Amino acid sequence: MADSTTGGIPHQQPNDLSRPLCAPKPAGPSGPVAPPAWVQGSQGFGDNGHRGAFGEEFIRMLATAANLDVTRKERDRVGVDWQLGYAGRRGTRRYPAIEAQVKCTSSPDLHDDHIRYPLKVKNYNQLAGNDYEMPRFLFLVLAPVDPIAWSHATEERLHLSHAAYWLCLHDQKPVHVDPGKSGSGTRTVHVPRANLLTADSLHDLFAEDYRNLVGV
Predict the structure, then answer these.
(1) Residue 26 domain-assigned?
(2) pLDDT confidence band for 12 (50 / 70 / 90)
(3) What are phi and psi of 68, to 5 degrees?
(4) Which of 78, 95, 132, 195 is most buried, most CB within 10 Å of its CB?
(5) How far apart are CA 155 and CA 29, in angstroms?
(6) Residue 24 pLDDT greater than 60, yes or no
(7) Is residue 38 part of a domain?
(8) Residue 77 falls within a domain, yes or no?
(9) 3-state secondary structure 1-33
(10) Is the pTM of this model over 0.90?
(11) Residues 53, 54, 55, 58: is their CA dihedral positive or negative?
(12) What CATH number is associated with residue 130?
């Protein structure tokens, strides 16, 4: 099937980001000190579960900075990780909400204006179409391969690497799945690099334009 090439309304261009490193204090007056054991090779450090948790907390941090109410879906039965609530700008609907499915990758397929990302058909169908009560989005977080580079804290700021992007699929049709099959397989989507998630652009996702795409 053809790839999806839609992704909603672009907002901002992504920024360049960098990486850090922390080291323990030397035990004596001189000489190198080996890094702690958890840096050298903790089991599961940086695996898919760890990376996924970082991606979700990356989104929570942005949403909190945007002064949004963030609710975690403890049982992911309908393809939603977070529900975000917003008081609403003056002259707009009060207390709107959106939902988000979060994915995190350390091996993005980057192109000049988009990121190609393979979604499981099940996940794609949980985002595509307009039969929803509220708008829902894919939030794609890009993280370094090395988990030590995911964050860097100083007295002035907390820096998270690298960035997150959003995609809306309400104008796309769900993929037909044979009831006799498990629904395995993937559908590649194009996430526009202009759709950078920031505290400001998160507010834009509560616009009436997106509510008009679903069956509210």
Answers:
(1) no
(2) very low
(3) -100, 150
(4) 195
(5) 26
(6) no
(7) no
(8) yes
(9) CCCECCCCCCCECCCCCCCCCCCCCCCCCCCCC
(10) no
(11) positive
(12) 3.40.1350.10
